[in-house]
Amino acid sequence: MHDALIELSDSSLALQKSSITLPAADKLIARQVEVFTARKHSNSEYYNETCQAVASGSFKGVFVETSTGKEQYST
């Protein structure tokens, strides 16, 4: 799961760059979806660990929360 979080962080940073184009962003997102889908099917250890973390609400002592990603945060 740690690897997946690092990959998501790297993708997020790449998508936030002002120089990224729409085709490049689409390609990056599509690739990441393929990687996670392949990981889910080829190595159930990651998938099972993720499901357990979400179900218990904790991953190695860190609070895990499910989200739609649409929440608005004010600063």
What can you see in these coordinates?
The structure is a single chain. The chain has 75 residues and is mostly helical. The longest helix has 21 residues, at 22-42. It has a domain at 23-57. It has a two-stranded antiparallel sheet with strand order 1-2. The chain has 3 helices and 2 strands, in the order αααββ. The protein starts with a helix and ends in a 12-residue tail after the last strand.
Please summarize what this structure is.
The chain has a domain at 23-57. The chain is mostly helical. It is built from 3 helices and 2 strands, in the order αααββ.
Features:
75 residues; 65% helix; 5% strand; globular
Radius of gyration: 14 Å
Largest sheet composition: 2 strands, antiparallel
Approximate helicity band: 55-70%
Amount of beta strand: 5-15%
Shape, please? globular
Which residues sit in consecutive blocks of at least 5 with pLDDT less than 50? Answer: none
The end-to-end distance, rounded to whole angstroms, is 29 Å
Strand arrangement across the biggest beta sheet: 1-2
Q: For the residues shown, what is the average pLDDT? A: 80
**Secondary structure tally, helices:** 3
How many beta-strand segments? 2
Structural class, from helix and strand content? Answer: mainly alpha
- H/E element sequence: HHHEE
Topology:
Layout: H1 2-16, H2 22-42, H3 44-56, E1 58-59, E2 62-63
Antiparallel strand pairs: 1-2
